[in-house]
């Protein structure tokens, strides 16, 4: 009986002094990641340390006896979520692909040492597009997603194919092709399933309507082009007519006969002939225009 209690005591001691757990945390890129290091004991902690990817790669640490926090090889985006005394949770914001890895929380108190492992996985939602071409093939593409998205079609078809492109940053682009040459359905639906999102896209398969749409757009382009050309032509004709009219007016003025102007001669009084009214040259010695004007007026009244 005593041996049984001794074995149980040793097992309990090992469980208390070396507790290690593993937790997987998935966070979408650009969001906040919180890694909680639970204090399974009610005894206050003495030391807490966060490490990344290896047991010797220190990131954040706190010593209660010195009330000291240290940061080593740690981004400024990685901080304490709360106070390390009460809750030594680790906060990463915003999360990016470079933050992926294994994080270890180690803390010690009077009851022992405790280790908790966290596997941080960053999820990147893909960019989804659905297009088609003139060869009656639809392409549903989920670009740069992590992990790769799943693509399916409604209705299901044996004419679909798929390919993947892996990028250096760990993201994947997946493209699924759907041919509808011998299918009478009016439309097909592309279903994209991903850990960060689900998206549904629908595209019509009426190829005639596609051609009609393109023909209508071409006709509209032709109409607009013709209207613009018509406006330019009317403007040019109007300007030509204006200049032609002005040229005709100038030509008519140039060909018209010169106008004759008659000058009314000065009438001498009847009592004075041309020779009798000749004045001697010495009369201009004391020339005064006013006296001449008065003289002429007197002769006119007579």
TrEMBL record:
It is a single-pass membrane protein. GO terms for cellular component: external side of plasma membrane. Residues 16-110 form the Ig-like domain. GO terms for biological process: regulation of neuroinflammatory response. PROSITE patterns: IG_LIKE. GO terms for molecular function: signaling receptor activity. Its main location: membrane. InterPro entries: CD200R, CD80_C2-set, Ig-like_dom, Ig-like_dom_sf, Ig-like_fold, Ig_sub, Ig_V-set. Residues 1-21 form the signal peptide. The chain crosses the membrane at residues 220-243. Keywords: Disulfide bond, Glycoprotein, Membrane, Receptor, Signal, Transmembrane, Transmembrane helix. SMART domains: IG (SM00409). It is found in: Membrane. Belongs to the CD200R family. This is Cell surface glycoprotein CD200 receptor 1-B-like. It comes from Taeniopygia guttata (Zebra finch). The gene is LOC105759805.
């Amino acid at each position: 009986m005593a041996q049984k209690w001794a074995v149980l005591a040793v097992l309990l001691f090992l469980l208390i002094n070396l507790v290690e757990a593993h937790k997987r945390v998935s966070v979408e890129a650009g969001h906040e990641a919180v890694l909680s290091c639970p204090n399974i004991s009610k005894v206050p902690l003495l030391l807490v340390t966060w490490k990344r990817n290896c047991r010797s790669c220190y990131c954040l640490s706190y010593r209660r006896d010195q009330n000291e926090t240290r940061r080593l090889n740690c981004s400024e985006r990685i901080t304490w979520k709360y106070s390390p005394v009460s809750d030594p949770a680790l906060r990463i914001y915003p999360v990016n692909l470079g933050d992926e890895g294994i994080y270890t929380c180690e803390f010690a108190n009077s009851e022992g040492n405790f280790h908790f492992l966290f596997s941080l996985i960053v999820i990147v939602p893909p960019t989804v597009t659905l297009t088609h071409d003139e060869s009656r093939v639809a392409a549903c593409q989920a670009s740069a997603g992590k992990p790769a998205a799943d693509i399916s079609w409604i209705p299901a078809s044996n004419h679909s194919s798929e390919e993947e492109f892996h990028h250096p940053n760990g993201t994947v682009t997946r493209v699924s092709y759907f041919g509808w040459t011998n299918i009478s359905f009016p439309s097909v639906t592309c279903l994209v399933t991903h850990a960060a999102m689900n998206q549904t896209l629908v595209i019509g398969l009426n190829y005639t309507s596609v051609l009609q749409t393109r023909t209508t757009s071409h006709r509209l382009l032709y109409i607009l082009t013709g209207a613009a050309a018509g406006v330019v032509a009317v403007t040019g004709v109007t300007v030509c007519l204006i200049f032609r009219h002005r040229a005709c007016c100038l030509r008519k003025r140039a060909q018209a006969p010169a106008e004759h102007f008659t000058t009314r001669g000065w009438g001498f009084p009847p009592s004075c002939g041309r020779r009798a009214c000749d004045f001697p040259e010495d009369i201009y010695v004391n020339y005064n225009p006013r006296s001449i004007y008065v003289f002429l007026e007197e002769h006119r009244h007579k």
